[in-house]
Amino acid sequence: MSAPKNILMIASNPAISPVTGWPIGFWWAELSHAFEVFEQAGYTIDIVSPDGGKLEADGFSDPEDASGYSVQDTVSLAFKNDPAKMQRLENTPALADVDPNDYDALFVVGGQGPMVTMIDDPRVHDFVAAFYEAGKVTAAVCHGTCILLKTRLSGGDLLV
Predict the structure, then answer these.
(1) 150 near 119, Cβ under 8 Å?
(2) What is the pTM of this model?
(3) pLDDT digits (tens, 9 = 90+) for 101-123
(4) How many CA atoms lie within 13 A of 116 on its CB side?
């Protein structure tokens, strides 16, 4: 039997939207739904952030938010009610402390946070480019794709 595949999820550190002044971060469904699919497929999963530390979600993505915007997101609610899973968000490792050779796939989580914390972060761009150039599965969803606007390969061309 082969060893399980390892997936690295990169999620945004908390930030404040320069447009609304609201706290922003990752989007619950984009983290929890992917996590569940990866977990059910038997992968091991680590969650990191550019700076490390505690992660916070965009308010409207929280199924328990007073707005009711994501009230039907039972997958995220189940994640939130699982203490072991929530512990993974309490003190994430910093991206710089991660060895990309330990992972088979990379998944960049969306949310409003990446538009502030990742779009201009060369640490994220360089990590994603190196991962891609190593021939490994490299994916980003929703606002996490903003990194593709500035991620350059070793030859100088944009990744996309």
Answers:
(1) yes
(2) 0.96
(3) 999 999 999 999 999 999 999 99
(4) 19
